[in-house]
Write the structure tokens for this entry.
Amino acid sequence: MWSSASGVPDRNRVMESLEHGCLPLQVTRTARGEHEERLSDASRALLLHTDGSGSVPPLSDEELKSRLDTVAAALSTGSLERALAYEYG
């Protein structure tokens, strides 16, 4: 997990985390908005938004499993790396 001002997952950090067997989660203070609609489901699954106090709300077991399943499916088809390359630049 890392913090970033960007509302787009950092491709290099994501891929490095995955290589180490970790679910990469990027904490961002950017508000959910229209730009997030353009991201892939997997990219959205990698983002955690802070609440009004700047804290990250805890994820339920179901939410964590859903995010993991989404990222694993995208990784297995190769669409995760393509989406990150396109979205992150």
Summary: Helices lie at 11-19, 34-37, 41-45, 61-77, 79-88. The chain has a mean pLDDT of 88.
